C-alpha cells in the first residue's frame, strides 16, 4: 500500500532535526519496546537517535507518534504506521537536507530490511479468511463498450448515466467507489430498453428515408470560390456546408455519401473533410450539439471527384427539437455539416480583425458537389444484430416457448460472460411469460425480458467470487476488461471453457493477441487519461491577450472573443499526442523510462508547428525523430501536462510539482490544510498584471504554515518554468517591471510582428534552478530529466507497474502485494522494463489471477 508522501514527510521530517530532548524521556523509549530482540537492538536505537525528538511525547509532528508504536505486526494495530515509515525510509525521503545528523546507508537499510521482513511475516501468518473480494460495477466506459460488443453496434448510452466518480491521479474503476444507487438503476433500465429497441427489430422491412443536396461548382461568388467549395474559413468561422435532413427512422444504421474532390495550391496535396451531425453549428452560438460521423482525407483533384461514404447509428445523433418562429412551427430536424478542418499550424497567422477569408484561396479547399443521406441501411434483413439475439431456428415455428427459453439462455451466457444455470434461465423465462400476456409479439416481449437481464448484478457488476483462486471465466473477464475495457470475445471464452487460462503461458498468448487488437486502444486511452490526469487541460482558461495565436476564436456575435467550438483544436491534438505516445510505447515495447525522456515525439502538423518541430505534414499522428534543440521527449514536456498544470497565463510550479510526484513518482501529495491560504493562481490574468508564479511562490514559502511542505514540493516544479502556460519552450522572460502587452490588431498585422515584439522584451533568462530534496541542484528540464533517469528509475518503474496493477484489478494495492510487485520488477529490469512486457507480467501475476 502506498501512502501520501506528504504524510510520510510530515511524519518523519523532524525526526532528524535535533538530538537534545531525545534522551530526556526514558518513559517514551520504554513505550516503544516490544520484547522482539531485533526490534530492541536495532530499531529502537534508530528511533532514539533520529525519530523520537519530533514524534515522541514532547513534540508530536505528523500522523505517527512513536511513543506508543508496537513492534508486533501480526495484530495489525500499527501496520499503517509501519508502512508509512517503510515507504519514507525505502525512498530515502528522510532526513531532510537541513538535518544535523543522518543515519548511515547501512543503518537505514537495516531498519528497512527489518520492517519489510516483519510485515511479510505478519501477512504470511494471517488467516486467508482476511482476503477481500473485489466487487465493483462496470464503469460507464466499460458499460458502453460491453453493450457495443454484446449487441454488435455502437450506442452512446453512457451520456444518459450518472457520471463516474473522478479523483485526480486515481482510477474510477476502484471497487470502493463503484456501487449502484436507486436512481442509477433506473437509468440503467432506461438505457437497457433503449438498447433493446435498437437491437431487436419489428417484423417487416421498414421505410427507407432518403434525402440529398447538391452545390453548383461553376458559379463563382465574391469570395473567388464556387458555391461548392469549402475553404478553411467562412467569414469568421470554420468553412462548412450544411444540409438539413427532414425525415429519418427512429433506429438503425445510416449512410452518407459525399461526392467530393480537392483544390490544392502549390505545396499542398490533401484536404480533410469532416462530417458532423446534430443541430446547426453556428460560429456565433455555443448551443450547437453534434456527433462526429467521420473524417476523409481527400487527395483527388476536382477533375476526378470521388464518392466518400460515412456511416453511423441514427440513435447517436442529436436532434434539433421543434420550434415556433414567427407563428410558424418548424419540425424537428437534423443538420449534416461538412467541414474543411485543414490545419497546418498557421491558421491564425492570417488573421486581421477577424479571420482573413481571402487566405482560403491560398489553402487547400474541398469541392463538395453533393451529399446523400439514407437510413436505415439494409445489406440484409433482418440485420445481423437482430439475428445474433433472435437466432434463426425452426424451433420458433415448432415451439415458440422453447425457442424463447433458448434465446434467453444464449443471451444470458454472453451478457453474464459465463455459463448460466437452468434455474437462472427459468427465472427470466418466467418474466418473459408475464410480458407475452401483455404484449402482442415475441419481439416486444423479448425486448422487455432482455432489458431485465441487462440490469441484473451479473451483468452490471464484475463477477464476484468467494474463493481466492479466480475461476477461468472470471479470469477471462478480468483480462478483457483490463486490456479492452469490454467483455471477453469468443476465443477468450473458449480458452476459459477449456481451462487453458490456468497456464500462465496461455495467459501470455491471449494477452499478446488482445494487445494487438484495435480494442486495446480503448484501454490505452482510458488508462492514460486517468493515470496522468490530463483531461483537466481542456478546462484551463487560456489568456488570449498573452497567447493570441494559440486559440481559434470567434470574432463576431454573442460569443465574440471565445474559442470556436466546432473544429479540432491544438488542445484536442495535445490529448491525442499523449495517448498516442503511450500507445507507441506499448506497440514498440519501449522501456518505461521513455516517459521521462526519448528520442522521438508523437506529433501531427499543427502540433509540430506549435512546438517548433519542422518537417511534419498532415493531420495524422506518427512518431517523429527529435533533436535536443526541440526541447521535447518523454511526457514531461507534453502540452497536455503543461497546460493542465498552469493557470492559462503562467506556469504553475506547484501544480506541475504535484503532477510529477503523483503521476510519475507515485507519491500521494497531501493537500494543504484548510487554514493555510492557497497560492494564488491568478497571476497574469491580464497582460498588464502578468507575474511569474515563482515570484509569488517565494513570498508564500516564507509563511511559517507553508514552509515545510513547500521546501520539499517546489523544487520538483521549478525546473518546469522554462515552459509556458501553453506548453512551449520559453527560456526568456521580460525584465522585472515590464509587462507584456496583448496582441494588437493595429500593430501586429502578421504573426512575425508580434513575435518580434516579444523578442524585444524577452531578454532575461528564466531561473529554473532548484535543489532536489536530498539531491543535487538541477537547472531546467534537461537536468531534471537526467536526475530522474539516473536516480529515480526504481521509483518510476515501480509506480508505473503499480498504476497498471491497480487499474487491472480495480482496487488499491496493499503491503500484501509488495513482494509480488518487487518480483515482477526484478524480472522486467533484465530487458529494460519494456512497457508491453510489464502489461503482460501484470496479467500473469498472482495478484491479477487471484481475487483479493
Can you describe what's shown?
The protein is of the alpha+beta class. It folds into 4 domains: 5-126, no CATH class; 209-375, Jelly Rolls, CATH 2.60.120.260; 469-517 and 817-852, no CATH class; 523-731 and 766-791, no CATH class. Helix content is 38%, strand content 12%. Strands 1, 2, 6, 9 and 13 form a 5-stranded antiparallel sheet that branches. The protein has a 4-stranded antiparallel sheet with strand order 5-12-7-8, with no helix packed on it. The protein has a two-stranded antiparallel sheet with strand order 3-4. Strand 10 and strand 11 (328-330) form a beta hairpin. Helix 11 crosses helix 12 (422-436), helix 15 (472-483) packs antiparallel against helix 16 (490-497) and helix 18 (520-532) packs across helix 19. The radius of gyration is 31 Å and the shape is flat. The chain starts with a helix and ends with a helix.
The rounded Rg comes to 31 Å
Estimated structural class: alpha+beta
Largest sheet: 5 strands, antiparallel
Strand content is 5-15%
Count the strands?
Answer: 19
The end-to-end span amounts to 13 Å
Summed over residues and divided by their number, the pLDDT gives a mean of 84
Unreliable segments (pLDDT under 50, ≥5 consecutive)? 1-35, 127-131, 682-691
Helix amount: 25-40%
Task: Provide the domain count.
Answer: 4
**SS element count, helices:** 30
What overall form do the CA principal axes indicate?
flat
Amino acid at each position: 500500500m502506498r501512502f501520501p508522501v506528504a504524510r510520510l514527510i510530515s511524519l518523519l521530517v523532524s525526526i532528524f532535526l535535533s538530538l537534545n530532548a531525545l534522551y530526556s524521556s526514558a518513559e517514551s523509549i520504554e513505550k516503544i519496546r516490544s520484547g522482539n530482540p531485533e526490534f530492541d537492538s536495532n530499531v529502537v536505537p534508530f528511533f532514539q537517535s533520529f525519530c523520537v525528538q519530533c514524534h515522541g511525547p514532547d513534540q508530536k509532528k505528523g500522523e505517527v507518534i512513536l511513543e506508543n508504536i508496537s513492534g508486533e505486526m501480526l495484530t495489525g494495530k500499527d501496520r499503517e504506521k509501519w508502512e508509512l515509515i517503510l515507504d519514507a525510509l525505502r525512498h530515502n525521503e528522510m532526513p531532510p537536507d537541513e538535518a544535523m545528523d543522518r543515519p548511515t546507508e547501512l543503518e537505514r537499510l537495516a531498519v528497512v530490511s527489518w520492517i519489510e521482513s516483519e510485515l511479510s511475516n505478519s501477512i504470511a501468518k494471517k488467516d486467508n479468511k482476511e482476503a477481500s473480494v473485489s466487487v465493483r460495477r462496470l464503469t460507464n466506459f466499460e458499460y458502453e463498450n460491453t453493450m457495443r460488443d454484446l449487441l454488435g453496434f455502437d450506442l452512446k448510452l453512457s451520456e444518459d448515466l450518472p457520471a463516474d466518480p473522478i479523483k485526480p491521479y486515481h482510477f474510477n474503476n476502484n471497487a470502493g467507489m463503484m456501487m449502484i444507487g436507486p436512481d442509477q438503476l433506473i437509468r440503467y433500465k432506461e438505457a437497457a430498453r433503449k438498447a433493446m429497441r435498437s437491437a431487436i427489430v419489428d417484423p417487416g422491412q421498414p421505410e427507407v428515408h432518403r434525402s440529398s443536396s447538391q452545390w453548383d461548382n461553376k458559379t463563382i461568388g465574391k469570395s473567388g470560390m464556387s458555391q461548392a467549395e469549402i475553404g478553411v474559413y467562412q467569414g469568421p468561422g470554420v468553412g462548412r456546408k450544411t444540409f438539413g435532413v427532414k425525415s429519418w427512422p427512429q433506429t438503425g444504421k445510416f449512410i452518407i455519401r459525399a461526392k467530393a474532390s480537392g483544390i490544392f495550391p502549390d505545396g499542398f496535396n490533401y484536404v480533410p473533410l469532416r462530417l458532423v451531425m446534430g443541430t446547426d453549428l453556428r460560429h456565433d452560438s455555443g448551443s450547437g450539439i453534434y456527433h462526429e460521423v467521420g473524417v476523409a482525407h481527400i487527395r483527388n483533384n476536382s477533375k476526378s471527384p470521388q464518392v466518400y461514404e460515412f456511416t453511423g447509428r441514427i440513435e447517436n445523433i442529436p436532434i434539433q427539437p421543434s420550434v415556433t418562429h414567427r407563428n410558424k412551427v418548424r419540425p424537428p430536424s437534423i443538420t449534416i455539416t461538412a467541414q474543411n478542418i485543414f490545419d497546418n499550424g498557421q491558421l491564425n497567422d492570417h488573421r486581421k480583425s477577424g479571420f482573413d477569408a481571402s487566405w482560403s484561396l491560398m489553402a487547400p479547399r474541398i469541392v463538395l458537389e453533393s451529399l446523400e443521406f439514407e437510413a436505415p441501411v439494409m445489406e440484409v434483413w433482418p440485420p445481423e444484430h437482430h439475428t445474433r439475439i433472435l437466432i434463426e431456428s425452426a424451433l420458433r415455428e415448432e415451439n415458440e416457448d422453447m425457442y424463447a427459453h433458448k434465446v434467453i439462455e444464449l443471451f444470458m451466457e454472453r451478457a453474464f460472460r459465463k455459463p448460466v444455470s437452468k434455474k437462472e434461465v427459468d427465472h427470466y423465462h418466467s418474466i418473459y411469460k408475464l410480458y407475452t400476456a401483455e404484449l402482442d409479439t415475441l419481439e416486444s416481449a423479448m425486448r422487455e425480458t432482455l432489458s431485465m437481464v441487462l440490469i441484473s448484478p451479473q451483468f452490471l457488476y464484475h463477477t464476484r467470487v468467494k474463493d481466492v483462486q479466480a475461476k477461468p471465466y472470471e479470469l477471462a473477464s478480468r483480462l478483457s476488461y483490463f486490456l479492452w475495457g469490454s467483455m471477453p470475445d469468443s476465443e477468450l471464452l473458449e480458452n476459459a471453457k477449456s481451462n487453458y487460462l490456468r497456464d500462465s503461458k496461455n495467459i501470455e498468448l491471449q494477452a499478446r493477441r488482445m494487445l494487438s487488437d484495435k480494442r486495446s486502444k480503448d484501454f490505452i486511452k482510458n488508462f492514460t487519461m486517468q493515470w496522468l490526469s490530463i483531461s483537466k487541460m481542456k478546462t484551463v482558461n487560456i489568456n488570449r491577450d498573452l497567447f493570441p495565436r494559440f486559440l481559434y476564436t470567434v470574432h463576431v456575435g454573442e460569443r465574440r472573443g471565445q474559442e470556436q467550438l466546432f473544429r479540432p483544436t491544438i488542445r484536442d491534438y495535445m490529448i491525442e499526442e499523449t495517448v498516442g505516445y503511450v500507445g507507441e510505447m506499448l506497440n514498440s515495447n519501449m522501456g518505461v523510462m521513455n516517459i521521462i525522456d526519448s528520442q522521438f515525439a508523437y506529433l501531427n502538423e499543427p502540433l509540430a508547428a506549435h512546438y517548433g518541430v519542422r518537417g511534419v505534414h498532415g493531420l495524422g499522428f506518427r512518431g517523429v525523430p527529435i533533436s535536443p534543440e526541440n526541447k521535447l521527449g518523454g511526457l514531461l514536456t507534453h502540452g497536455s501536462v503543461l497546460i493542465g498544470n498552469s493557470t492559462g497565463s503562467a506556469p504553475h510550479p506547484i501544480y506541475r510539482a504535484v503532477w510529477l510526484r503523483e503521476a510519475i513518482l507515485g507519491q500521494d501529495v497531501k493537500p494543504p490544510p484548510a487554514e493555510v491560504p492557497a497560492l494564488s493562481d491568478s497571476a497574469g490574468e491580464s497582460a498588464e498584471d502578468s507575474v511569474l508564479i515563482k515570484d509569488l511562490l517565494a513570498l508564500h514559502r516564507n509563511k511559517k504554515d507553508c514552509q515545510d511542505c513547500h521546501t520539499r514540493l517546489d523544487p520538483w516544479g521549478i525546473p518546469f518554468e522554462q515552459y509556458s502556460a501553453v506548453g512551449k519552450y520559453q527560456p526568456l522572460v521580460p525584465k522585472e517591471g515590464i509587462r507584456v502587452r496583448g496582441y494588437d490588431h493595429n500593430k501586429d498585422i502578421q504573426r512575425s510582428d508580434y513575435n518580434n515584439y516579444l523578442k524585444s522584451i524577452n531578454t532575461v533568462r528564466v531561473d529554473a534552478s532548484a535543489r532536489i530534496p536530498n539531491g543535487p541542484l538541477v537547472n531546467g528540464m534537461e537536468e531534471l530529466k537526467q536526475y530522474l533517469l539516473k536516480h529515480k528509475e526504481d521509483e518510476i518503474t515501480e509506480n508505473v507497474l503499480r498504476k497498471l496493477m491497480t487499474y487491472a484489478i480495480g482496487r488499491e494495492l496493499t503491503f500484501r502485494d509488495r513482494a509480488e510487485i518487487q518480483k515482477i520488477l526484478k524480472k522486467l529490469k533484465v530487458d529494460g522494463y519494456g512497457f508491453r512486457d510489464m502489461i503482460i507480467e501484470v496479467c500473469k501475476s498472482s495478484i491479477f489471477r487471484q481475487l483479493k
